[in-house]
Amino acid sequence: MRFKISLEKEPKHTDVVCCVGWNNTEEVYSCGDDHVLKRWNLVTNETVKVADLPQELYPTDLHWFPRAQVVGKKQGLDLLLITSADGKFHLINRNGRIEKSVDAHKGAVLTGRWSFDGAGLLTAGEDGQVKIWSRSGMLRSTIIQSDTPIYSAAWGPDSNQVLHTLGKNLVIKHLAPNSKPNRWKAHDGLILKVAWNPSNNLIVSGGEDCRYKVWDTYGRQLFNSIAHDYPITALSWSPGGDLFAVGSFNTLRLCDRVGWSYSLEKPNTGSIFNIAWSSDGTQVAGACGNGHVIFAHIIERRLEWKNYEASMTSRKSISVRDVSNEAREQLEFPDRVIKLALGYNHLVVVTPSQCHVYSTKNWNTPGIFNLREGSVSMPETLNLASISISNDTIAVRDQLDSKTVHLFEVGSARSLVDLPPLHHWVGVVEVTLNQAGSALERQIAVVDRNRDLYLALVRGSLHKKLRKLAPMIQSLCWNTDTNILATVQDTNLTVWYYPMVLYADSRLLKKTAHIKDSRHFGKSPTVMSFVGNHLRVRRMDGSLVNSVISPYPTVLHGYTSASRWDDALRMCRFVRDHTLWACLAAMAVYGRELETAEEAYAAIDEVDKVFYLQNVKVNRLRRYSHKIPIRAAQLAEMALLSGNVSEAENLLLQNGFVALELATKHKTHVDTVLLYRKTFLESFEKTETNEKFLQFMNEVELDPEKINEKVEQEYERERENG
């Protein structure tokens, strides 16, 4: 992946270009020290002078009103914010008319940014102050007052925090009252630029020490670049948060979200003072010191899936190669390619107005449908980490409430059916659905802001019950063929062979996981793909490392999903691996297979579970010789083993089993419950302390012969019912 540079032979501006920005119709606006506001149309390659700015207006920053807030409300909201060296900021409409000018700072206003929700804007200046203003330009508060000029500032993802520079330090200021700011030393020189992406919650900074660095919101350094030849003067995240661009003197660099560089371009531009991305994340525009406005679009995106490889050879063409037989296909499109995805025997290509779906079996007749809006954009708060799709379910993190995940069932008639949403008690940063199995086996993995990993079933009686799988998760990926989950956890690569163990027997969790030391993957690796038993991991330096896991867990999943329990047992006996036996034990408990579970537990020395299962199979009641070979009772006992008390109770209710509350509610077998309770306590030499039981003990006569006769009648009735 790299930038392809577009640069006019002669500059359109006669002086330094200070700032650029994309408006909501995908046109670029630029302005500089020549006091001219220009508009660039990249479709027609036309450049138009929009307006002559006042001679005293020397612009320092430019930012358009957020796109998401303009849809349906364009009139009056399609505003351009320009800050200037005379201490003012200006609200300008798309025709170049200044709607309002506000005296904001003493000295130059060095940066100005609209909030993501469009409710207000911030300015920072040479006077060391950061101020919050209303949408109409009324001062709300001065949140920072210092003696050091603030060269750059950015809103937090929820617009409740502000990041700003302070000499060599970075500071995150919370807007809530009485909150303590988070401050840390970030560079060895003056920090000139910062950017905070709302999708991935990462911060990138650059300064006079000629380095750019990536940080999390706690001030932990995730990446430190090599020293460049000149100071870093421009930084900007792509809307989706997967890329960012870095500008310096005659330098434009394209970087991955973790910091490593895809490409380095050396255009003749002078210093690049400002960089802005298009809303679809495919192009950037840069303000150059020699009067040019540089444009660059991304080409040579490369995707792999099994034996197929797809590469963007130009803005409007994709080359597909089958590495197994070297067959090649060249796909041409009428418009530029914005997004592409390869997987599950299909290639999906999105252009500004159409979506093309190709099958790997036939590249000549794609499915094509038009996009209603006519243009595609990537909202800054929506990325691949906040949305996931399987063949029957869609999961989307709420953009306004990050603790809520909305679930939709994919209908057969091109419709979506709302499922009950998932509510977490901490903000969610990543959601992903498993891809294998039926709709009833659909699981959602959720990573919250504490980097803890939780699992939940999308459907069924256990829906919405989030259960913690692991802490300190840096990256995760579901297997494409089976319900196996790979995670980078702290310093380890952990493969969870059977995540559903949380709903079967959570005490087997560690025994069903395979742990690899990830230190040879380097710091902060990312799991890119998990196909079959092959894992592909991206190191921080951008290199790819392949890792292989045992093929037996995949085979075991196939056996158990097809109810071939005997084959699963034979394979485990042959392999003699404790992890495999633990997986089989959990699968058998979840599938309510007593015989298989008993042998699997015995193989991993879980003696107490073996005795429990044997007791479930026979279930002889103390001091009485009545056998209970009833399937419902056994299933209830298995549900208790899994920790699912409500499921066990429902099973007993549906099949006529009652306890004291149920017996009194249904006015039957109260004496039976009391007798068994009394017998149980006597066997352990205990006395009754429960007031309800003591009350009924005094009121109900306990005749063992009558009770046994009544129980026998119940058993006979149940046997007749099968």
Automatic annotation (TrEMBL):
Instruction: Give me any GO biological process, just one.
Output: cilium assembly
GO CC aspect terms: cilium; intraciliary transport particle B
Per the database record, which ranges form the IFT80 second beta-propeller domain?
300-378, 379-552
Give TM segment ranges: none
Q: Where in the cell is it found?
A: Cell projection, Cilium
- WD repeat feature ranges: 102-134, 184-216
The main location is other
Residue span, IFT80/172/WDR35 TPR domain? 580-720
Q: Which domain of life is it from?
A: Eukaryota
Keyword annotations: Cell projection, Cilium, WD repeat
In terms of SUPFAM superfamilies, this protein maps to:
WD40 repeat-like (SSF50978)
Q: Which InterPro entries match?
A: Beta-prop_IFT80_2nd, TPR_IFT80_172_dom, WD40/YVTN_repeat-like_dom_sf, WD40_repeat_dom_sf, WD40_rpt
Record-given protein name: Intraflagellar transport protein 80 homolog
Specify the taxonomic lineage.
Answer: Eukaryota, Metazoa, Ecdysozoa, Arthropoda, Hexapoda
